[in-house]
Design a protein that fits this description.
Strand content: under 5%
CATH architecture: Orthogonal Bundle
Helix content: 40-55%
Protein name: Protein kinase domain-containing protein
Order of helices and strands: HHHHHH
CATH superfamily: Transferase(Phosphotransferase) domain 1
Structural class: mainly alpha
Pfam families: Pkinase (PF00069)
Largest sheet: none
Number of helices: 6
CATH class: Mainly Alpha
GO molecular function, one term: protein kinase activity
Length: about 110
């Protein structure tokens, strides 16, 4: 869900170091980076926060996800606007990665 809404994974190593990435994942360190998340609703962020919980006993179940307000009202939102925002976020992310030299132009 995180990737679908912003275009990149919640966990990443700035140094592109595999061990650091594993530590970040195990600690559950992620953030909602601006500008990618600026237009994403607080309800969507709340659901993601409840899904990206380290302790499986505290993590939302599939049934809880289906009852979450963001999911229950998903059909009532303008999906075209959401699709446009996701596309913009993905393009923005790849442009920033290209500037950093992380992504090849041929990708």
């Amino acid at each position: 869900l995180y990737i679908l809404l912003c275009g990149f994974p919640p966990f990443r190593s700035q140094e592109r170091d595999q061990e650091e990435l594993f530590q970040i994942i195990q600690l559950g360190h992620y953030e909602f980076l601006s500008p990618y998340w600026d237009s994403i609703s607080s309800a969507a962020k709340d659901l993601i926060t409840r899904l990206l919980v380290i302790d499986p006993q505290k993590r939302y179940t599939a049934q809880q996800v289906l009852q979450h307000p963001w999911i229950r009202t998903a059909g009532k939102t303008n999906s075209r606007n959401l699709q446009r925002e996701v596309t913009i976020n993905i393009e923005r992310h790849f442009r920033s990665q290209r500037r950093k030299g992380v992504v090849d132009d041929d990708t």
